[in-house]
Amino acid sequence: MAPQLTLEPARLLQLVVSINTHDPIKIQCKVNQFLREETGASAVFCVIYCRDREDLFCQVVNQTTLPLEERLPADHPLLGGALRSPSPLFLPGVRLSELSSAVAAAAGVDSDSDSDSGGGLLVVSASWGDATQPGLLVCLAGRAAPFAMEDALLVRHVLGHVFGTLMHAVTSAEAQRVQLQCRSLLRVAQSIFRHIGDVTVLLRDIMTQARNLTGAERCSLFLVDKRTNELVAKVFDVADDAEQIEEIRLPMVTGIVGSVAASGELLNIRDAYAHPLFYRQMDENTGFRTRNILCFPIKDDKEVLGVAELCNKVTGPHFTRFDEEAARAFAIYCGIALVNSFMYRKIMDTQERVQLSNELMMYHMQVSREETDQLCAENTGSVARYSSSFTAWEYFPRDLEERRWPAAVLAMYEDLGLVHRFGIERSTLARFVLMVRKGYRDPPYHNFSHAYSVAHFAYLMLKNLQLVESRCLDDLESLSLLTACLCHDLDHRGTTNSFQVASRSVLASLYSSEGSVMEQHHFAQSVCILNTDGCNILSELPPKDYTQCLDMVRGMILATDLSRHLSIMTELEAMASGGYRSCEPRHRRLLHSLLMTAADLSDQTKRWLSSKKAAKLVYREFFSQGDMEKQMGNDPSEMMDRERAFIPKLQIQFLDDIALPVYSLMGSLFPACEEVYAQTKANRRCWQRMADICSRRNATNVQSIDVFDNERLDEEVLASDGESNSVQCATAPPGGSTVANSRLSSLRPYVSGVLPCCVSKNEVME
């Protein structure tokens, strides 16, 4: 005889009326409470089957809504069998915590004692009308008496009246969820498409939106560099912000990110440290602890463009399938945005380069064949024909007649043996030098006169320090150094990097994202000249040497950016202290940078009157920029302001903080350079004496460049130099002081105003 139902029709009708809502949570709460009252179970909950994801989820236990949906696999060992079976499932003695700890906690059941109730677990299934599609499971637990068939029939009878309402509410909620997801994705798309003009900003926005969309703690975004077969990250997510750092490059096969880049498939990893591909080194380097990861590719219609890696789900124990869906949809928008951004950047670069090329073509004239032939015909001979002291440290190369400078450059290449060693045609070298001269504009200081002077000091170092003979450098490095010095300020505009950026110039548009705006441009112009017909002095080099030479020239030109010099100062001091080791590639690169800086500052090493003559040109150029800044409505810094600059003080600070430490290092590495260091210290004493004289006369407000045109003041400075220990004791700090850290704060206010050779390149205070 079949068990009899004791359910009162009036109560069931009341339940059916009460669930007239589209909220599946409210419906489940009422159904759960009704079944608890009718069966005496202490825990009742519905487990719903999701057809799209093919898994199970639970939202409510009794009348308690779970903070996060509890998701279970469709083949769950306890529930999988009941899902497609019309018969109820009785599981006596099964703990609720064995099913789910989250469900047990919501039911208020002690996981250590929930099996003592004796009732076990009752699972009743309900399906859609055709019985082929599973719908939901109703689970009852926590009753002293065992569950019986009449309990199962009661549950099934109730489900016959509420199943349709509940499942339609679940379907409606899912549709609303999808609609909200679409709206969110549209807002995300609208946001990221606003930034296609700036890849860096776009990457930051993609990371922020991905993190917000999935509830992640951190996000990293790597772009694929097909040229080097590497993954590149320039922006990292830090807390609630994105931080620009020195780019990180990883081999394409590295870790989870590399696997996703190679396969093009999403990975959802619940336990990062248990995954064999997890790259632990990143956590060790950053101190961040990764718990779980959602990593997805960003693709166009052909290939993977990048990989986004989301770490640590904040609103749950791990990333869900819903997060996977959101990530896949989001990745489509990201791919479109990145492709458009790259295309936009290429178009803008092309337009800006065309504009720059037109500007250069209008400004520069081509070198005529007559000029080249005339220079080739000149008998350069020995360098001594230009001056008997041409190879002396104190020789001031600007004293030579300007028309003879190109011939003197040819003589330096020949005297160092570079023409013979590398098979450079004399006509090619002549045309190259003339093109370089044409490539310089005519600002007061950063013109060909400065380039010629810097190249001359490089020649002095190569010759007097015997850098090649002592194997500190090889012949190719010697060629690179002299060429880099000659080209290091090509097409200089007489303004600083910060001015270029502030005025939004074409150069800033092209190079500001790479840093060292002017230095990047100087190198680009060097390559343009080398690529000009009849000007390539490197044409006879083997391909490997050609590439290496260009790489060294680029590194040397970029080394004239003062911020780069300060960033390696600690390493330079360590090298000087421990000794130069030519077998170490890093030591060779450090020496390249030091030699370039020493050459670039070499006006500071000449005798007082010559050094002061060069400084006057510097300040004329700086004050010209200051005047332009005032016209733009900006307030120039002290060294750019002809009305505020007190030049002796600025020069002393510059010598103390920049020049003297450089030549102290040179003297430590090469004893033959002590003479250069001594002369620089003597110049420092002269500037100090000038400052003292002005102070005694209450003339610290000497305006602009008046100090350069006062012959009586010069006589007084030279007559007084060395008279008293008060001047001597004010000399620069002993060699080896750490500029990069201890002196940087004092350097910021004035460094750009006093550096004749590299200040106007990249002001440290920027």
Task: Output the strand order for the largest sheet.
Answer: 3-2-1-6-5-4
Mean pLDDT: 83
Helix content: 40-55%
CATH evolutionary superfamily of the largest domain: 3'5'-cyclic nucleotide phosphodiesterase, catalytic domain
Protein name: Phosphodiesterase
InterPro entries: GAF (IPR003018), GAF-like_dom_sf (IPR029016), HD/PDEase_dom (IPR003607), PDEase (IPR023088), PDEase_catalytic_dom (IPR002073), PDEase_catalytic_dom_sf (IPR036971), PDEase_CS (IPR023174)
Keywords: cGMP, Hydrolase, Metal-binding
Family: Belongs to the cyclic nucleotide phosphodiesterase family.
Structural commentary:
By secondary structure, the protein is of the alpha+beta class. The protein folds into three domains: 9-110 and 117-177, GAF domain (Beta-Lactamase); 195-238 and 245-348, GAF domain (Beta-Lactamase); 369-715, Catalytic domain of cyclic nucleotide phosphodiesterase 4b2b. Helices cover 52% and strands 12% of the residues. It has 30 helices and twelve strands. The strands form two sheets. It has a six-stranded antiparallel β-sheet. Strands 9-8-7-12-11-10 form a six-stranded antiparallel β-sheet, sandwiched between helices. Helix 6 runs parallel beside helix 10 (321-363), helix 14 packs antiparallel against helix 19 and helix 20 (543-558) packs across helix 23 (585-600). The radius of gyration is 38 Å and the shape is elongated. Keywords: cGMP, Hydrolase, Metal-binding. Its EC number is 3.1.4.-. One of its GO terms (molecular function) is metal ion binding. Its cofactor is a divalent metal cation. It holds the Pfam family GAF.
